[in-house]
């Protein structure tokens, strides 16, 4: 079935199938990042965590499995939030162990309508610095969220590592090249060394440590790789400037050097995280 594409320059709407591609293929690529952050900060019983841009909720589920009380907030794809609710919120007849979780569709401002004890940890696991203008938008989001965090609370920001340490960079450059005619605000760009520190500084947060984590992107085949990568939204501007078929074709070609003899796709990457504190 042909996908309905937006006019040139518009951001494509995320369909339910793409949300599934994210939750079933792509989201797990960042599991080593989530694990490293939670281990370093000792996330467990007694942790009250606020996840900004929580998406389909895998990072929240991992924190909840450690005993944390989690709240996820997202203004984006409703389909991803539905998947987060499926993962975290009990349904009638559900025999899974209950977790302490809340999912909010909206912004941190919407938490003001409920009695929420101060959070001790705020996470932003969507990588900063991969879209032009995303750092500024994150600054606004943090300004809304920080008032709900306690003094000394940790705020974790994540971003891509150096381009030369990230094999996926060569594929993401396709997004930048195809989106060039638009020169729009959503196009991909390489990460800058101080992206995370600059965002934390503008939000009035105090840096308190950082780290790097290997997060290889591995896929069963090229088709899964294309679907997973496009589910990130980093190719939306490219689709808007050209069309889905062109983007699929060029991403497939860019993946060729990363295809192994058994047909799987493997791209080593390094991600950074910054821990900052609420003054």
TrEMBL record:
Cited InterPro entries:
SAM-dependent_MTases_sf
Q: Sorted alphabetically, which SUPFAM superfamilies does this protein's record hold?
A: S-adenosyl-L-methionine-dependent methyltransferases
Full protein name: SAM-dependent methyltransferase
Naturally occurring in which organism (per UniProt): Streptomyces griseoviridis
């Amino acid at each position: 079935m042909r996908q309905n594409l937006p006019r040139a320059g518009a951001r494509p709407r995320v369909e339910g199938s793409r949300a599934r591609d994210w939750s079933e293929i792509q989201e797990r690529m960042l599991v080593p990042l989530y694990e490293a952050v939670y281990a370093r900060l000792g996330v467990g019983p007694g942790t009250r965590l606020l996840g900004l841009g929580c998406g389909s909720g895998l990072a929240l589920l991992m924190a909840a499995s450690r005993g944390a009380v989690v709240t996820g907030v997202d203004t984006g794809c409703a389909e991803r939030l539905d998947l987060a609710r499926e993962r975290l919120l009990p349904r009638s007849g559900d025999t899974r162990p209950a977790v302490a979780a809340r999912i909010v569709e909206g912004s941190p401002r919407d938490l003001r309508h409920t009695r929420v004890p101060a959070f001790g940890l705020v996470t932003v696991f969507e990588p900063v610095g991969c879209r032009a203008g995303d750092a500024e938008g994150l600054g606004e989001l943090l300004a809304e969220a920080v008032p709900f965090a306690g003094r000394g609370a940790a705020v974790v920001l994540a971003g891509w590592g150096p381009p030369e340490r990230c094999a996926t960079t060569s594929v993401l450059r396709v997004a930048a090249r195809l989106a060039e005619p638009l020169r729009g605000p959503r196009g991909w760009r390489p990460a800058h060394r101080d992206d995370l520190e600059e965002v934390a500084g503008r939000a009035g947060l105090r840096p308190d440590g950082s780290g790097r984590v290997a997060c290889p992107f591995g896929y069963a085949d090229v088709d899964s790789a294309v679907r997973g990568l496009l589910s990130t939204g980093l190719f939306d501007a490219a689709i808007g400037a050209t069309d889905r078929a062109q983007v699929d074709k060029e991403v497939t070609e860019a993946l060729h050097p990363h295809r192994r003899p058994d047909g799987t796709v493997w791209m080593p990457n390094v991600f950074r995280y910054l821990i900052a504190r609420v003054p």
